[in-house]
Amino acid sequence: MMGETHEMEGATAIPLVEMRSIRVSYGGVHAVDGVSIDLHEGEIVGLVGGNGAGKSTLMKVLSGAQLPDSGEIYVGGKPAHIQNPRDAKAYAIECIYQTLALSDNLDAPANVFLGRELTQGAGSLDDSAMEDATRRVMGRLNPRFRAFKTPVMSLSGGQRQSVAIARAVHFNARIMIMDEPTASLGPAETAQVRDLVRQLKEEGLGIFLISHDIHDVYDLSDRISVMYQGRIVDTVHKAKVDTDDVLAMIILGKKPEEASSEELAELQI
Amino acid sequence: MSNQATAVEPPAAVIDERMAEVSLLTKLLRRPELGALLAAAMIGLFFALTTDEFGTLDGAANWTDVASTIGIPAVAVALLMIGGEFDLSAGVMTGTAGLFMGVMATEVGMNMWLAIMLTLVAAAGVGFINGYMVVRTKLPSFIVTLATFFVLQGVNLAVTKEITGTVRVSGLSTVDGFESAKSIFGDSFSTYGFRLSVLWWVGFTILATWVLARTRVGNWIFGVGGDPVAARNVGVPVARVKIGLFMTTALAAALTGIMIALRLGSTQASQGVGEEFQYIIAAVVGGCLLTGGFGSAIGAAVGALIIGMAFIGISFSGWDTDWRLLFLGVILLMAVLINNFVRRSAEGARK
Predict the structure, then answer these.
(1) CA distance, residue B27 to nearest chain A CA (Å)
(2) In chain A, at which residue ranges do the beta strands (DSSP E only) sit?
(3) DSSP string of A175-218?
(4) Of A87, A173, B86, B103, which one has the fewest beta carbons inside 10 Å?
(5) In this predicted model, what pLDDT tens digit does every residue of B274-304 receive, in sequence order?
(6) Of the candidates B213, B236, B293, which has its C-beta nearest A114's C-beta?
(7) How confident is the model at residue A7 (pLDDT cuts 50, 70, 90)?
(8) Where does B40-337 sit in CATH, by number?
(9) Calpha distance B114→B105 (Å, rounded)
(10) Which of A97, A105, A132 to mutate to test the interface with B (most CBs of B within 10 A)?
């Protein structure tokens, strides 16, 4: 229904981030094979595809967890050099993983500030400043969050996700990568995380959303990029496709118009 | 009224739960060193009641001495274990350091202080190699440092025999700078014979506790030990933290070796073999988890105190010293079981 505005924006504005011809291979297998993708301010781009399609690997390149064999990354139109997660953070790129983002044995403030702790004179940690900052961000994101002093291992999935998102928000992320943010969450928590994602978009962040859940992606995204065996099948505006088209691309690895009627018919079974 | 409303932050709709403090017992149960402190009190009390010397200051000078030479490396091993790694070469490292310093001083003819400096540099190098290999190969540190253990043990014996013709390096007391070095590392500091190593032990424990609780590096050590992948993803320099921990462990072991060598004026090639397990036991008794991410430096120091008290207490009681090994095995097993239990009840107590 809408989306036209977006096309215009895409044509004129400089993308928040642009990845060009990214290639990654693991021992002869092209996990990511010449992929180009971009993301604008206040936009959510869904990244979907089957297992091993290369979604996560592509995003690891952007977050600095994986070095590409070739390809360029531009942030705000300028070439960006991302060698490790620290570099990515310097470009205001933050990653929310479902499982790998939190240190279970630390509490929420320690997790939010892990690697970027606040200190006061003599290099001593400023625990109360870190807790206050965490409370402030959390008050915005998830006002019911209370567990500031317990190790995050004893938190629920939704609370843990809140901690991970609070970290990104506190450090003024402009570009957020969310890898399966609602996997293993209950329905209520999923709804909570979805609201959070929409709120971040309102605030002008650009978000790459990786998900197996086609409804998650379809619900939240402005554009959807479908990956298949390391390549992008197509990037489509949500308004122009329905979930069946996206599913067909995920499974067949072809645009709907390229697929034969037999193949499409088979999918209907 | 509207201008008032905008100026005031909306009062948090709920009461800050910082006010609702958890009970003291729950808090205590969450401390890793609780079990060790209770055990130390019981063992101390037992030997103080059953033997004459144990409770005296002379007796205390004895058991604090043993505790300190175990405790200095044990505290470093605890940091390493919280960081999720092991070091089986720490015990032999005390011997390597003493021998290296001795050879530099007596055979090469260096001033004692220069020999000490070089020894520390060499130890840091060994620690670096341990850490670098673990980080690069991603092999378990158990295997990597087991290799280092045998390499160092072989070097200790073979090189010492090659140079001195015996299995010991002696004659340190005639070297320039021996007296001044001994007055810092080796002497006693009170009429009851308390060793300087006790002060080093206490100082190192305080330093390690401060680093763990109050510094960024301390936070990183817990993060790295809890989940290295998560820590790396948020930008913690995991490799540097781990290598630094291995170097700290090697340095602490070398410092202990230097102290023992200066105290005796000589070092045996077999010095330190097997003591790595005492360090690990002290750390585990003090609440360190074998899986990393949890533990305390004070706990390891208390663990070392328990071992020191038991070793000397067994001697004072007139029992055969072979019972020490049985004691080590029993307290290790008990510590692991109690830690398990305490942790589970502490987690249950969380809301």
Answers:
(1) 11
(2) 17-26, 29-39, 44-48, 70-75, 78-80, 93-97, 119-120, 124-125, 175-179, 206-210, 223-228, 231-237
(3) EEEEESTTTT--HHHHHHHHHHHHHHHHTT-EEEEE-S-HHHHH
(4) A87
(5) 999 999 999 999 989 888 888 999 999 999 9
(6) B236
(7) very low
(8) 1.10.3470
(9) 8
(10) A105
Per-residue burial over A34-56, b if 16 or more Cβ lie within 10 Å, else e, is ebebbbbbbbbbbbbbeeebbbb
* pLDDT at residue B46 in the model: 93
Give the closest of A97, A125, A154 to B347, CB-based.
A154
Please, is A215 exposed, middle or buried when counting C-beta atoms within 10 Å of its C-beta (0-12, 13-18, 19+)?
exposed
CA-to-CA distance for B226 and B238, rounded, in angstroms? Answer: 12
Q: What are the structure tokens assigned to A178, written together?
A: 């969310």
The per-residue pLDDT for range A74-120, each reduced to its tens digit, is 998 899 999 988 889 889 998 887 665 688 888 899 989 988 888 88
A124, A156 contact by CB (below 8 A)? no
pLDDT at B343: 66
Q: Least CB-CB distance to A105: which of B216, B222, B233?
A: B222
Which chain A residues contact residue B220 at CB under 8 A?
Answer: 114-115
- Per cent of chain B over pLDDT 90 is 65
Q: Which of A82, A113, A114 to mutate to test the interface with B (most CBs of B within 10 A)?
A: A114
Nearest CA in chain B to A99: B230
Q: Where are the domains of chain B?
A: 40-337
Q: A100 vs B229: CB contact, 8 Å cut-off?
A: yes
**What is each CA distance from B269 to B156, B167, B169, in whole angstroms?**
5, 5, 8
More confident residue, B342 or B139: B139
**Chains A, B: CB contacts under 8 A, how many?**
87
On the question of pLDDT at B339 being above 90, the answer is: no
- The reported pTM is 0.81
Q: Locate tokens 């506790």: which residue? A: B209
In the predicted structure, residue B13 carries a pLDDT above the cut 60: no
Assess: ipTM above 0.90. Answer: no
Q: How confident is the model at residue A53 (pLDDT cuts 50, 70, 90)?
A: confident
- Paired strand residues for A24: A32
DSSP three-state, residue B276: helix
Helix, strand, or coil (residue A54): coil
A146 in contact with chain B, both atoms CB, cutoff 8 A:
yes
Alpha helices, H only, B138-215: 141-164, 178-185, 196-214
Structure confidence by residue, pLDDT tens digits, A117-131:
888 877 788 888 999
List all residues 6 or more positions away from B140 whose beta carbon is below 8 Å from its beta carbon: B86, B134
Measure in Å the smallest separation between the Cα of B230 and chain A Cα atoms: 5
Domain range A4-268, CATH class = alpha beta
Domain boundaries of chain A, sorted by first residue = 4-268
Indicate whether B321 pLDDT > 90.
no
> Is residue B46 less than 8 Å (CB to CB) from chain A?
no
**HSE toward the beta carbon, residue B125, CA cutoff 13 A:** 9
Query: What tokens does B305 get?
Result: 């105190």
Least CB–CB distance from A115: residue in B17, B227, B236: B236
